Amino acid sequence: MSKLNEIADRAAGATPPSLAGAVRGLSDKSIAWIFIAPTIILLLAINIFPLIWTIYLSLTNYRANRPNAELKFVGTEHYEKILTNPDIWAAMQSTAHFVVWTIVLQTVIGFTLAWLVDRKFRGHGFWTTVILLPMMLSPAVVGNFWKFLYQPQIGLFNYIISFFTGAEPSSFEMLGSVQLAPWAIVIVDTWMWTPYVMLICLAGLRSIPDYIYEAAEVDRASNWRQFWSITIPMCLPFIMLAVLFRGIENFKMFDMVNLLTGGGPGSTTEVASITLKREAFEKWRTGFSSAFAIILFVTVFGLANIYVKALNKVKSR
After folding, report:
1. Does domain 82-315 have CATH number 1.10.260.40?
2. Cys-Cys link to 198, which of 65, 113, 117, 159 (CB 3.0-4.6 A)?
3. 3-state class of 73 per DSSP?
4. How far apart (Å, rounded) are the C-alpha atoms in residues 161 and 157?
5. Among residues 115, 116, 104, which one has the least CA distance to residue 193?
């Protein structure tokens, strides 16, 4: 009779006793790993293999436009050339200028906007939506839009500047001036991504319990004292998180710079990503550009790790 029952259970698709016992013997953690393991393996394959291949190419003289040429192992020669190349250091300096100023402006303006929106004044929902509009646009749209605004003859931006300075609008060559072109890119990136920083800071402000401010008012703390002793310290992890995200993104900025100036005038706005593109797809120095990409990766990864440790210390206070 038991044999007939076993045959009937198998015909009905019932789980065999041995398999059912094995499943029951697994912990929740083991079952979770069984489900997520394929995804983790796929992600590792997608990310790790290109990284290993890039490291391999950086140690060779490979050129993508000459795939059949003799492949030679050059060791760390490309890395040595990059670290002693003044053009590379100039590109890194331009990148640092761009990253530092965009982070400073976006953090200050973004936090200020978040603080104002958090006041919940009449119509704050409408103005919040208006402020968020720039970050919803494509970088290609933003780049072409601001390129039109920067036009010396018909650009609205130059007419606004001339209104305050009294100079002729055509005298402002924002994208053609060695002094003004870097700031033109900083202005565009700040206009586009300040709302992103505002959102993160707004989340930090909304996470502060009201009873803390009520206790401060009972102690007769001034608004200025509440701002520096409550608002800033409790919102600091969110501000640092916004700085981390924008720092990583701005370090590898390419599309906006390429659309607005292409790295010009001269090499004034040639950030690291533009230099990498020139080496890889204009000069076809694939091995050299691979080594440069690895150096950029190590730089960003190292700085991000140091920053995350500082962020964790702030969060643990």
Report:
1. no
2. 113
3. strand
4. 6
5. 104
